[in-house]
Structure formats: C-alpha cells, structure tokens
UniProtKB/TrEMBL annotation:
Gene3D superfamilies: UbiA prenyltransferase. Its main location: membrane. The lineage of its organism: Bacteria, Pseudomonadati, Bacteroidota, Chitinophagia, Chitinophagales. This is UbiA family prenyltransferase. It is found in: Membrane. It is a multi-pass membrane protein. Keywords: Membrane, Transmembrane, Transmembrane helix. The chain crosses the membrane at residues 12-32, 38-58, 79-112, 128-148, 160-182, 202-222, 229-248, 268-284. InterPro entries: UbiA_prenyltransferase.
C-alpha cells in the first residue's frame, strides 16, 4: 500500500492542465490511430506527467502551496522509487505499443524534466533556461510526440506552426503558476522567470506570449483557409481573457492578490477553455 503523501504528490489531477496540447496534436492528425491514441494518453497523463510531478516534489520538499496543492505533504523515498518505476514502464510501453522513436522521445522528455528538478543540475534555478525547458518540452515537443504517436503513418512531418502555438500557449500561462511562490523559491535558491519579471511584469510578459499563440492560431486558420479556427479560438478563449484582465487589475491594486487561489483559478479556466477549443476542432475534423 502506497503512502498517502506519495499518492498526493504525484498530483494526477494536475496532469489535466497539460491535456490541451494532447488534444491539439490529435486534432491536427490526418489519420488517427485510435488504439495508439488511447495508449499515448495513458502513458503521458497516467505515468509520465505524474512521475514528473512526484520527482519535482521529492527534490523540492515544498512546505507551502505548489501547483494544484494548497498543503503538500513531505515526500519519502518511496515517492522517488515509484517515479523511477513509472518512467521505466512508460518508456517500455511506448517502445512496445508505438515504436523505438516514440520511446526515445519519452526518454528525452523525462531527462529534461529531471534536469529541471535534480539538485545536481537544477535548471529551474535559472529563470530563462528553466522557463524555456518547460514551455518547449511541455509545449512543442509533446505536440510532436503525440502527433507522431497517434498518427497512422507515424510521420515526422510535424506542422511547425502548431508546435509553436503549443509552446506559446504553455508559455503564456506558466509564469502565472509561479507568481505566488517568490518567497519559497528564494529560500530554495531558485529564481523563476516570474521573479525576474516581477508581479506586474509577469502579467505583461504573459499577455505578449499569449498574443503570439493567438497569432499562430490565426496563421493556422489562414493556411487551412478556414476562418472558423480563429473565430472559435477568440470566442472560446474569452473567459480566459476576462479573468486574466480582472486578476491583473486586482494585482495592480493589491500585490497580495497574486496568490495560490487566483493562480489555480487562472490555470483551471485557461486549461478548461483550451480543452474545449481543441475538442471542438476535433469534432469539426
């Protein structure tokens, strides 16, 4: 029987926040292999992402709120051992079910995730390198991996504009998940992109990056000659924009509003709306 802290720190529910990139990739595949798509989802959202969460918690040993958890428990060695087992199963399953290329892709993602958290390397303590590691691997890289793994042809001819859009979508909200952790990160010797920008600067930066994501969606609609791709994006993402502007205004007046509760709410609304958008694209295809 696993310890309660181990189950909590895997943060299975937090994997849902990374679902939009998976849905986006599947929505762009010309011929989808449903059986492979199911397995890719399980490998990423049940094994790889929770393992990454758990390993990060094992290294950080957070005492205050973290992504998806207001009161994290202290990790034990059991958590570390389980993350190794989960990663191993994920890679082996990826090779058996999909192929060696997919398995190598999983390994690269896992290594990047470990380098981000591991005390001996600790990419997360460098604001720009840490930020780029997260948005590239959770964004464009995962898009490419899912696109490859879920397609019948397993083509490496992956649409670059979609990879960029995925990267910018992750990059547009990720700093907002760090905006309430300044004191905890500083004690741990970590300097995040949000700390570097400051609370107000974080909102300005995120609005610019999200605008780049919207530009990619516009270009996608242009090359496909389908205005619905853009109009649906603008309509479905309206709640995200409204909450973002409300929260930014609140933080401008009172910096204490840059807290865990509002950050989590922003995350829920952003991931929820993007999931709805990409599911809609799936139905349109």
């Amino acid at each position: 029987m696993l310890q309660k802290s181990t189950i909590q720190l895997l943060r299975f529910h937090f994997s849902i926040f990374l679902l939009p990139v998976f849905l986006f990739a599947v929505s762009q595949v010309a011929q989808v292999n449903l059986w492979h798509t199911f397995f890719v989802f399980i490998i990423l959202h049940v094994l790889v992402y929770p393992s990454s969460n758990g390993y990060n918690s094992y290294m950080d040993k957070d005492e205050s709120a973290i992504g998806g958890l207001s009161k994290p428990m202290m990790p034990t060695k059991e958590l570390f051992h389980l993350t190794v087992i989960m990663d191993t199963i994920a890679i082996i399953a990826g090779i058996i079910v999909i192929d060696l290329t997919f398995g190598i892709g999983l390994l690269l993602y896992i290594l990047a995730s470990r380098a981000y958290s591991y005390r001996g390397i600790r990419l997360k303590k460098y604001p720009l390198i840490g930020y780029l590691t997260v948005i590239v691997f959770q964004g464009g890289f995962i898009f490419a991996l899912v696109y490859y793994g879920c397609s019948v042809e397993r083509s490496l001819n992956i649409p670059l504009v979609c990879m960029l859009a995925s990267t910018f979508l992750i990059g547009g909200y990720y700093p907002l998940t760090q905006i309430y952790q300044f004191e905890e990160d500083e004690k741990d010797g970590v300097k995040t992109i949000s700390m570097l920008l400051g609370k107000r600067g974080t909102f300005i930066f995120c609005s610019i990056i999200f605008s780049l994501a919207a530009t990619c969606i516009w270009y996608l609609s242009y090359i496909h000659r389908n205005d619905k791709i853009l109009y649906l994006f603008l309509a479905i993402m309206t709640p995200v924009l409204v909450y973002f502007l409300w929260w930014m205004n609140a933080v401008w007046k009172n910096p204490q509003k840059a807290d865990f509760k509002n950050s989590l709410q922003m995350n829920i609304i952003a991931s929820g709306c993007t999931c709805i958008y990409f599911i809609t694209l799936l139905f349109l295809r």
